Amino acid sequence: MANNTFPLLMMMVIISLAIAFTEAKWAESVEAKKEAAPSETVTNLQFFFHDTVSGKNPSAVRVAQASDTNKSLTLFGALLMVDDPLTETPDPNSKLVGRAQGLYGSAGQKELGLIMALSFAFTDGPYSGSSISIFGKNPALNPVRELPVVGGTGVFRLARGYAIAHTHWFNLSGDAIVGYNVTVIH
Hints:
The chain is mainly beta and 186 residues long. The protein is 10% helix and 47% strand. The protein contains one helix and ten strands; from the N terminus they run αββββββββββ.
């Protein structure tokens, strides 16, 4: 009986591994475009960034500010440290796919323009343990923004690409849910 069980167990392990390494709903490899070399992969990621600055358990906190920050309409000089959840849908209770960790600051004196330095660290699916790095200007009041992907770790080592951000929801406290559609060449 033990001899018959071993092949069945091996088959179950192989099927389980195949399922575990399939791509998640929020990520897919796409055909390489002209920007990618033949040996590179182009991956499209779609997820939602939940930035909470209000309440008892904020995911973004102000860690520094200039002496005149509170007099500025754009909060010029404010610097926030973040540990924001990344989810599969805009619903805050949807599947967690990673965390956005890093900082952003208000860098515009006349318009709301954030400078963002974030690592999107993935915790789900085939990209679990890998991250992409975003660094650039985010004109947050524009309905759609483009930010550069400047690097990554794990599967995304030496990554480049771009992230399209669109505000899904925000309130007067400054809390926001932002949809990200990221194209990564790695």
